[in-house]
Each structure stands twice: as C-alpha cells, then as structure tokens.
C-alpha cells in the first residue's frame, strides 16, 4: 500500500499572502493564486540572475541553471525527458506555433480532428491551419451529459487523419476524457495525439508516457505558477519536423529546437519555486484526493434553485462546476457573490464554443472552480450565499 500524503490545507494557506484577506477564491480555472515563494523567486531572479546564456560570469551561470532546473522540473511534472519540454508565452501561442510546425508538410484534403468539448485554444489553431492549407476539419460531438462521443470519434477517423486534438478536461464544466483510449484511436489511424492538459494539470498528475500522447500543452498559472506556457513534444515526432527557428539557435534537444528567442528566465525561476511548492504539499496525488472531498461536499449541499450543468456527481470530472441560480442573471449573481466575499466568475462561452452551443443557457453561467487551497468552510459559505441569492 503506498504511503498516501494528505494535504494540510492550513499549511497550504499560510504560504499565500493572497489568501489572508478574507476573500474566498473560486476562480482557479481562470488562474490560481500563487504562493509567496513564487513571487520571491521571480524577484530574486531579476536581482541575481539578470543575464542571458553563455557568458563567463555568475549571473549568466545562474540564468542557465534556472533554465535547466525548469526543464528538469517540467519533465518530472509531465512525465517526459527534459529535452522534450518547451516553454512559451501561454498555451494558446504555443499551440499556434506547434500546430504550424507540425502541419508544414500536410497536403490539401488531409484531415484534422478537433472536439466540441475543447477550449478554442485547441480548436482555432487547427481551423486556421486548415484555412491556409486546404485541410478538412472534423469535429467530434459530445453526449448530452458532456462526455465526449467516442463513437463519434471513431466515425471521423480515416487514413487521411493527421491529428486528433482533444482536451484532458474541460475548463467550463470539468468533464474529463479517456486520454489513453483517445490516443490509441488516434495512433491506430496513423494520426498524432495532441492533448490540451491546461485545465487538467491543476487537478491530477499528467504522465505523457503512460498516456502515450505526442504533444501535451498547459499553462503554469493554472497550477499556482507564473504566466507561462509549457509543452511536451515527443522527440521522435519532432525529429520529422522542420522548425521555425533562427538559424544560429539550438537545433537540439527537441524542446530547445522548438523555442524561439530568449527564454523568460524570471518566469522560469517562478516555475521552479512552483514545482517545489507542489512537491512540499504532497504533489498532485494529495491535491486530487483533497479536492475530491471538497467537490463531494459542494455537490451534496448544492441548494434547490441552483441548476448545475454537465456530469451530476464527482465521477469523471475535475472539481469545476458550471451553475446558474434560477431567476438571477449570472453577471448579477457573480457581483453579489463578490460583495459577500466569494470570487466566482460569470461568463458566456468560457471559450468552449461547442459546449456552449450544446448546453444552451442564455444569460451566461457561473463557474465555481475549486482549488486545493479552498477550505470546507469556504465551500459551506459559498453554498449558503448561492441559496440566499435564489431566495
Ligand atoms: C482548457 C484550456 N485550454 C487552453 C487555455 C488557453 O490557455 P492560455 O490562456 O494560457 O493560452 C485555457 C485557458 O483558460 C484553458 O482553460
């Protein structure tokens, strides 16, 4: 029996100045709070390691060490080799860049598969590529309960399919997908398995090797890190790519070949502190178990008069819920919750256009995004506040 580390939320919260102000944040899906060590590391980097690679003195050595530590930390986080990690401004820009690189050799009539569950950051890059190269886009539909329609996926795969781009979990309603099964289907069709792990990565451990995906992307500000994009590209896949790069820049390993320009050393210093923080509090395994308890509490105590969308319980999802308070427009509810000390966003599409069309709500919706730094008392207070709004 493995030694399961449980998360000590009091210990977690004392690490965040931002959580000491009497306001409960339920908006982690749009970006989490960051522990103080992350900001400290960023500030220290600007004081002590403000240099580029390759100079024969201490500041440059420190910048290089920061970069190497970030590659190693990100590799451990994703389950790949350090040389397969690349960094960028955010997930969206990395995805535009990598999809362009992957697609350079694709021919008119080749097919791309995207899903109706995905954030547009993993749809729009493929639509634009298809527009420019004359490719055909196939969309995998979703079932009424917001799970992905796997028969629909099987139905759109063909020997012209070049990529299956899909999400690990939706940022809007929290539904997860069977990643390994989808990867296997993609590979059986001879296509790349291209995973958006941006929402999932804050809640459960990703292991790109076990999941057998070719590309995985996420954004570190979703899991208590700085604003920074992070991607894994399988070395054997990238070996066949012609990268968009400045000619004198590195050609190996894969991750460095695919990055452009000078790395964001300050953000990487913050990321190193983020990985340290996650490790100290028990890692993603402890986070997943703790968040599940909060999610069970939320589901069990949701008051009458609140409509929840998507999967009804905690199975098959991460702890992100889309709800509406009957008779109260979402924007009004969000404002009133903020006045009571609860940070809950209202939105319309949540950038998930396929899901938005199929759920069919009109006046927007609220997204209650639980994070591992939330407490049971905060959930109790939020649920009571939701009940008052509806009464
Ligand atoms: C599931 C998902 N994918 C992609 C993105 C885009 O991430 P970024 O803002 O880092 O480009 C987001 C952002 O909210 C997201 O939630």
Attribute tags:
Aspartate Aminotransferase, domain 1; 13 strands; seven-stranded mixed sheet; alpha/beta; Aspartate Aminotransferase, domain 2; about 400 residues; binds pyridoxal-5'-phosphate
Task: Give a brief rundown of this model.
The chain has 391 residues and is of the alpha/beta class.
Topology:
Blueprint: H1 9-13, E1 24-25, H2 36-48, H3 58-78, E2 85-88, H4 91-102, E3 111-115, H5 124-133, E4 136-140, H6 150-156, E5 161-167, H7 179-188, E6 192-196, H8 208-211, E7 215-219, E8 229-233, H9 235-238, H10 254-258, H11 265-280, H12 283-301, E9 306-309, E10 320-325, H13 330-339, E11 342-343, E12 345-347, H14 353-359, E13 365-369, H15 376-390
Parallel strand pairs: 1-11, 3-4, 3-5, 5-6, 6-7
Antiparallel strand pairs: 2-8, 7-8, 9-10, 10-13, 12-13
Helix pairs in contact: 2-11, 3-11, 4-5, 12-15
The chain binds pyridoxal-5'-phosphate.
Description:
The chain has 391 residues and is an alpha/beta fold. The chain folds into 2 domains: 9-30 and 282-390, Aspartate Aminotransferase, domain 1 (Alpha-Beta Complex), CATH 3.90.1150.10; 39-278, Type I PLP-dependent aspartate aminotransferase-like (Major domain) (Aspartate Aminotransferase, domain 2). The protein has helices at residues 9-13, 36-48, 58-78, 91-102, 124-133, 150-156, 179-188, 208-211, 235-238, 254-258, 265-280, 283-301, 330-339, 353-359, 376-390, and strands at 24-25, 85-88, 111-115, 136-140, 161-167, 192-196, 215-219, 229-233, 306-309, 320-325, 342-343, 345-347, 365-369. Helix 4 (91-102) runs parallel beside helix 5 (124-133). It starts with 8 loop residues before the first helix and ends with a helix. The model has no long low-confidence stretch (mean pLDDT 96). Pyridoxal-5'-phosphate binds next to helix 4.
């Amino acid at each position: 029996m493995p030694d399961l580390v449980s998360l000590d939320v009091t210990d977690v919260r004392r690490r965040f100045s931002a959580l000491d102000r009497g306001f409960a944040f339920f908006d982690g899906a749009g970006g989490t709070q960051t522990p103080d060590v992350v900001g400290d590391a960023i500030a220290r980097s600007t004081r002590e390691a403000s240099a580029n690679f390759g100079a024969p003195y201490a500041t440059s050595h420190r910048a290089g060490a920061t970069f190497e530590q970030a590659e190693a930390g990100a590799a451990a986080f994703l389950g790949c080799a350090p040389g397969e990690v690349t960094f960028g401004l955010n997930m969206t820009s990395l995805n535009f860049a990598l999809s362009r690189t992957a697609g350079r050799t694709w021919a008119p009539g080749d097919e791309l598969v995207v899903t109706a569950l995905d954030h547009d950051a993993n749809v729009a890059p493929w639509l634009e590529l298809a527009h420019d190269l004359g490719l055909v886009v196939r969309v995998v539909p979703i079932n009424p309960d917001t799970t992905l329609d796997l028969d629909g996926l099987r139905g759109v795969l063909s020997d012209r399919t070049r990529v299956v781009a899909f999400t690990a979990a939706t940022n809007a309603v929290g539904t997860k997908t069977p990643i390994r099964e989808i990867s296997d289907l993609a590979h059986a069709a001879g296509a790349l398995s291209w995973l958006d792990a941006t929402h999932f990565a804050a809640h459960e451990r990703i292991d790109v090797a076990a999941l057998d995906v070719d590309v995985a992307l996420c954004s570190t500000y979703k899991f208590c890190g700085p604003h920074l994009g992070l991607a894994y590209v399988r070395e054997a896949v990238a070996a066949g790519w012609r990268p968009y790069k400045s000619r004198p820049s590195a050609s190996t390993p894969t991750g460095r070949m695919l990055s452009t320009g000078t790395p964001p050393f300050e953000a990487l210093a913050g990321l190193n502190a983020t990985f340290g923080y996650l490790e100290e509090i028990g890692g993603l395994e402890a986070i997943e178990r703790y968040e599940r308890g909060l999610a069970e509490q939320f589901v069990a105590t949701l008051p009458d008069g609140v409509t929840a969308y998507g999967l009804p319980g905690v199975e098959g999802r991460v702890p992100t819920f889309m709800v509406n308070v009957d008779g109260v427009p979402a924007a009004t509810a969000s404002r009133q919750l903020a006045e009571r000390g609860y940070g809950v966003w209202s939105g319309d599409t949540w950038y998930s256009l396929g899901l938005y069309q199929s759920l069919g709500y009109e006046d927007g919706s609220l997204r209650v995004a639980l994070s591992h730094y939330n407490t049971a008392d905060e959930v109790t207070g939020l649920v009571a506040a939701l009940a008052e709004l509806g009464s």
